[in-house]
Amino acid sequence: MSELLFEVTYPHPPEHVWRALTDAEALAAWLMPNDFQPVVGHHFTFQAPPQPGFDGIVRCEVLAVEPPRRLSYSWQGGPLKTPTTVSWTLAAIDEGTKLRLVHSGFAGIGGLIARLILGEGWRGLLKQDLPHALQVQAVIRPQETEA
Questions:
Q1: 45 forms bridges with which residues in the sheet?
Q2: pLDDT tens for residues 10-31?
Q3: How far apart (Å, rounded) are the C-alpha atoms in residues 131 and 108?
Q4: What is the chain written as a DSSP string?
Q5: CATH homologous superfamily for the domain 2-145
């Protein structure tokens, strides 16, 4: 088995990054439409346009919620025949928030293929889409930024 690991820093407080990870509407703005709820045991889906070998549905279950510090859920879709695990860890730093993403549990040839595809996907999401969503959130909710 292998994993993907990303660490990024955002100039926003952990509570703002946490909201982007745990509010279904905010999450949809940068990742995918979903029916996420930050409740351990909640089963939810992400929905993407179908592709060859992928029906467009990622099936997930919330495994851990520790606001605003840690979030973990299972992730299964496309070539993944067994669930993998997506784990987010947030840490307050002087510059804002250090975010760590570990996507683990890739096994077999399907896991290798998914790891390659998801690695590129996560990289773009964390470097472009999530920062944009956080900036928009900061503009829309400036009173929270000033707290």
A1: 59
A2: 999 999 999 999 999 999 999 9
A3: 33
A4: -EEEEEEEEESS-HHHHHHHHH-HHHHHHHS--B---SSTT-EEEEE---BTTB-SEEEEEEEEEETTTEEEEEEB-TT-SS-EEEEEEEEEETTEEEEEEEEEEE-HHHHHHHHHHHHHHHHHIIIIIHHHHHHHHHHH-HHHHT-
A5: START domain (3.30.530.20)
pTM above 0.90, yes or no: yes
R_g over Cα of the chain: 15
CA atoms within 13 A on the CB side of 100: 11
Whether residue 83 is predicted with pLDDT greater than 80 in this model: the reply is yes
Which bin fits 62, alpha (ψ -120 to 50), beta or left (φ > 0)?
beta
Alpha-carbon dihedral angle through residues 80, 84, 90, 96, given to the nearest 10 degrees: -20
Which residue is associated with the tokens 């299964």?
Answer: 76
Closest by CA to 11, choosing from 120, 140, 138, 105, is 138
